[in-house]
Predict the 3D structure of the following.
Amino acid sequence: MPPIANVADFREKARRRLPRLMFDYIDGGAYAEVTLQRNVADLEAIALRQRVMRDVSSLSYEVELFGETLPAPIILAPVGSAGMNARRGEVMAARAAEKAGLPFTLSTVSICSLEEVRAATSKPFWFQLYMIKDRGYMRQLIARAKAAGCRVLLFTVDLPTMGARYRDVRSGMSAPQTTAIKLNRLLSGIAHLDWALDVGIKGRPHLFGNLVDALPSAKTATDFGAWVVKNFDTTVTWDDITWVREQWDGPIVVKGVLDPDDARAALAAGADGLVVSNHGGRQLDGVLSSARALPPIVDAVGDKMTVLMDGGVRSGLDVLKALALGAKGVLIGRAWAFALAAEGEAGVERMLAILRAELRVAMMLTGCTDLKTAGKHLLVD
């Protein structure tokens, strides 16, 4: 395989290394994957405004998010089951983010627990939260995040139920575990021996580390999906932000907002920030891309709370486009998941370096010397 040049190359290397069901779990979306494709296509369609003779000898990539100055406006988004992409994958990604000085967000449904990631890192990370019916367990989970030193609570609100992900059914990831499917999974693992040894054997245990007490025997997406149907709280409203605030005294960021009215509701409920997100096209298909949804939300609440964006960000050019549309920072998910699956911790480090190099080129050729000044003037009308 040729040398890695961009995120697409990491994706291809991950496709070769992972069993099909694991690759499709990262790569796929809901239904016909229309929104998944829109996330990428709509960002690609945005034209940057090239400017020249602007003295770009000194650039500032720094942004301030929730009282912390970051060396770039990039956060590693929560990715469920990332520990199945590489051995103890969440630990690897967290360490790579720490080396870059960027936040890592641990998913509720990670393989590595809060405590394991905390023990392997020296700086605070973020934690992503799903609301489940058992508020006692929720209270304990938030307390564990506080004890681990997490700085920001990323409260995901667009998963009252699992989206219909056809690729996961076809690959056997979320289909009923018949003998034929189990045999196919075994053969797929054998066919990807490097992954099987690194993750399948050396990477154990394969439990959801933060939920061991809640679902100790869940090892597959099918197990998890059944647990979600029974345990995710479908009665949640904006009033529940008050309950979360009673448990958490740090910044609360609501993830999964696509509508300006919901953005206003998040602000009224006391959230400190929000992520314009369609869950990477993995929930309701046919909705707006994050790039299309972002500007009206920024217009509605952007001067009153911190607005971030995820969905379709595959390059440093995309990072600058998102900031030009009004986001204060971007979360990347698939990009680091592909890099992790391809090359482990070193892959995530290299992917972040590539994004920064691409961002540098985009800044210099648009005449943007300070990301704090990025705005619509960087785009072609």
Summary: The chain is about 45% helix and 10% strand. The mean pLDDT is 93. The chain has one domain: 7-374.
